[in-house]
Amino acid sequence: MWQYSRMKTVAIESQKGGTGKTTTALNLAVAAEKAGQAAVVIDLDPQASAAGWKDTRQAETPVVVSVRPARLPQPSKPRRKVGPPWRLD
Predict the structure, then answer these.
(1) In the predicted model, is pLDDT for residue 1 greater than 60?
(2) Is 55 in a helix, a strand, or coil?
(3) Which of 8, 25, 40, 42 is the most buried (most CB within 10 A)?
(4) Coil, strand or helix: which one is 70?
(5) Mind listing the pLDDT tens digit for each residue in 34-89?
(6) Are the C-beta atoms of residues 62 and 30 closer than 8 Å to each other?
(7) CB of 43 within 8 A of CB of 49?
(8) How many CB atoms lie within 10 A of CB 8?
């Protein structure tokens, strides 16, 4: 029987390079898949490291989509800061 479950969104962001953002996102996605959850990684990094990882992986999941940030719709008002620099919905 199908059961409703709320989608969880995790954003891993930092302006500094080399802090492990891509590695963390991919590890969380693989862990979610192993736990029976669906996962999608949206790679906004111009280097597209997550997409490159996906290209070398034999498994079909997790899904990795590479998107140029300029193609995303821009918010009509500035995003407000809530809590610490990380956020889990």
Answers:
(1) no
(2) helix
(3) 25
(4) helix
(5) 999 999 999 988 899 999 999 999 999 999 999 887 777 777 766 666 555 555 55
(6) yes
(7) yes
(8) 10
48 class by beta-carbon count within 10 Å (0-12 exposed, 13-18 middle, 19+ buried): middle
Residue type present at position 52: G
- Integer Rg of the chain from CA: 15
| Per-residue pLDDT at 14 exceeds 90 | no
- How many CB atoms are located within 10 Å of the residue 39 CB? 20
pTM (2 decimals)?
0.72
Please name the residue that has the structure tokens 């080399």: 18
Residue holding tokens 């709320």? 6
Q: Give the residue carrying structure tokens 């610490």.
A: 84
